[in-house]
Amino acid sequence: MKDKEKIALFIDADNAPASKIDVILSELARYGVVNIRKAYGNWKSHCLKQWEDVLHEYAIQPIQQFDLTKGKNATDIALVIDVMDTLYTKDIDTVCLVSSDCDFTPLVTRVLADGKFVIGFGERKAPAAFVNSCSKFLFLDDAVSDDKPKQVHSPSIKSDTKLMNLLRQAISAVEDDDGWARLGPVGTHIANHASFDQRNYGFKKLSELFASIDLFEMRKTNGSVFWVKDKKNAKSKQQHNSQI
């Protein structure tokens, strides 16, 4: 039996909601065991009272950082140093960073260069560069934590050009001669190229996201295998073939 992945969790408590700790740990349980759990902040501040209430319950080690200089965040620096120390001194497979305001992109890039998987959590105000640099990133908003995520209206999704390009490129990479692509390989292709997760758009499954967008066509074979086609690309192929 394969050993479970070893995960190190680092929380920027100044910029993360304590109310979502269950969501964070439940998600990480899908990947492995969280062996290291640390939360950083000025624990003398009343702003971290909610985090104080969950530290012992979830075996999270608080790391104290005083606000020594106004406008400078010592918490971020301490977190970065500990992540790097952990890379060199501990046997871990995955690093998890929880923050909404701080841009840890250089840190993520360095951890990825060491061959580690990086999972990020934060609210939607998290810097885009930080979100996109992670291997996987989940927003800690209501759409992620609810048992039945609130689905985003498809027209608003269609206006997300970056998302549409990502989905179309993934289909194009694994489609057959008729333009159909198995949903499994499509999801794998996306995961290898972006920190995408359909739950960030309000859908539990990738199939539900594709089905909500009329730019794509879906079918099911053998009762459980989903296939997806890019209507626009398929139409272009048909026109091209008819001219040959």
Automatic annotation (TrEMBL):
Alphabetical list of InterPro entries matching this protein: LOTUS-like (IPR041966), NYN (IPR021139), OST-HTH/LOTUS_dom (IPR025605)
Annotated ranges, domain HTH OST-type: 159-232
Annotated signal peptide: none
Gene Ontology MF annotations: RNA nuclease activity
A Pfam family of this chain: NYN
PANTHER family assigned: HTH OST-TYPE DOMAIN-CONTAINING PROTEIN (PTHR35811:SF1), SLR1870 PROTEIN (PTHR35811)
UniProt protein name: Uncharacterized protein (TIGR00288 family)
